[in-house]
Amino acid sequence: MADPIQKILVLVPNWLGDAAMSTPALRALHKRFAAAHITVAGRASACALLAGLPWLHGFVALPARPNLLKLVQLGRRLRPHSRDLAVVLPHGFRAALLARLSGAARRLGYDRDRRALLLTDAVPPHREHGAIRPIYMAKEYLDLVRRLGCEDDGEGLELRAAPEAVAAARAHLGDGGPVVGIAAGAAFGPSKRWPAEYYARL
Known about the structure:
- The chain is of the alpha/beta class.
- The protein has one domain (7-148): Rossmann fold, CATH 3.40.50.2000.
- It contains eight helices and eight strands, in the order βααβαβαβαββββααα.
- Strands 3-2-1-4-5-6 form a six-stranded parallel beta sheet. The chain has a two-stranded antiparallel sheet with strand order 7-8.
- A hairpin with a 2-residue loop joins strand 7 and strand 8 (131-132).
- The longest helix is centred in the middle third of the chain and has 11 residues, at 68-78.
- It starts with 6 loop residues before the first strand and ends with a helix.
């Protein structure tokens, strides 16, 4: 008998580090629902980061902080991708509302930010002494999809460059000596940036 879950929509976090930490859960979803078509929805940068993973089948770029009208329009746009299941990884209210507007029959996410009524499977967040306890994001996402029978394969985070990106990089860089890449900027200021004096030493 065919698995009833054939179309899965996964709303992924906006921040690239958090999106990377979603890869074990995304892979676990693919292994559990091998015949399903998995579509990722998130910021364009998060979709681009995950685009090289062969077990993801589609990507929908979402705008930052859409208003209610835009959310309704986006929900309609996501309907072909979310018929059976929407997995909501971000904690925000908008992500759960978008899952609801997508028409997914099942909507799995953490019960935070007054989202329980928008989710069919509202999972209590990790708590310690009554307060929500932050945990490693990759574990948090895996714990969520375990509710669907998914298992952690122990392989950890996984990112791959799309074949066309690899070919373009090889054509540009050639086969010369070593190449060093430096990402000097960061969105959240000094706490995320390598100090200038370290670059000077390098």
